[in-house]
Amino acid sequence: MRPRGNVQFDNSGRVVLVTGGAGGIGLAICQAFAASGATTYAVDVSQPEPGVELPAKLILGDVSQREDCQRVVAQVVEEAGALDVLVNNAAIQPPDSYRAIDQLSPAVWDKMVAINLSGYTYMAMAVAAVMRKQQSGVIVNMASAQGHRTAREVPAYGPIKAANLMQAKQWGVELAREGVRVVSVSPGAVGTPLLRASLAQQGGEAPLANRHPLGRIAEPPEIAAAVMWLASDGASFVTATDLEVDGGLGAFAAFADPFSVTTIPGQNDH
Ligand SMILES: NC(=O)c1ccc[n+]([C@@H]2O[C@H](COP(=O)([O-])OP(=O)(O)OC[C@H]3O[C@@H](n4cnc5c(N)ncnc54)[C@H](O)[C@@H]3O)[C@@H](O)[C@H]2O)c1
Asked: What pTM was estimated for this model as a whole?
């Protein structure tokens, strides 16, 4: 096999805070930052699953609560003396959110808005003040392919993910002359507890994988790798924009002849 190239990151001395860092994509992001030398914090409502080692300091907190966001950011800055990277990642997509708009429970809507939208804003409110003072920092919003284009029965998740994209553009523009970059990442399907909980609603694993031109579902470290680059100085001219990390999903039209369900040799060894 030909060499594929490699990137190594050095985040020594940097302080990173990942929301929803105890599991799924957030855990992979914590692992990547910690492995590259960053002082890494996770805020989460849950502990990691048994047997999972979190290479970050876990602060329990609920991002839908503004006081929690303020408390967590204050604790990080107090302990670590700075805050260089915020990854707004904590979000929910419960199976009972897969409904047509007139069947969606208002309670589910309110909860998703509170976590997936207000949570991102409350964290940014607290962190932007710190970064403005530092005159440096990076905020990464975890958005989704479903923020760009939609499917049936995602009347809450999709529109809120679209708002996460616009938050990054808005804050990126506002903070551009303060040394702070703000970007978003839009994954396709990624193998995490959130995805596994709704595989049935998405037609099952093999058909979902097959809708991606690369023919598979991403591994969480593949999303973390994009976050690492965006948060690094290698992306110093990248702000107020989005990076789709979606295995080609967004480019593949609904009118296109679907791929037959096969895997591509060499593509699944990540
Ligand atoms: N998995 C996918 O296919 C996929 C695709 C596109 C985008 N995303 C996005 O990636 C991000 C991470 O998703 P995931 O698949 O890793 O989800 P996940 O459910 O596997 O993990 C989410 C983490 O967030 C935590 N969390 C939930 N509510 C919280 C709250 N109120 N406060 C703090 N922490 C909270 C959970 O405890 C969990 O540890 C989300 O923004 C999601 O929308 C996921």
From this structure: 0.97
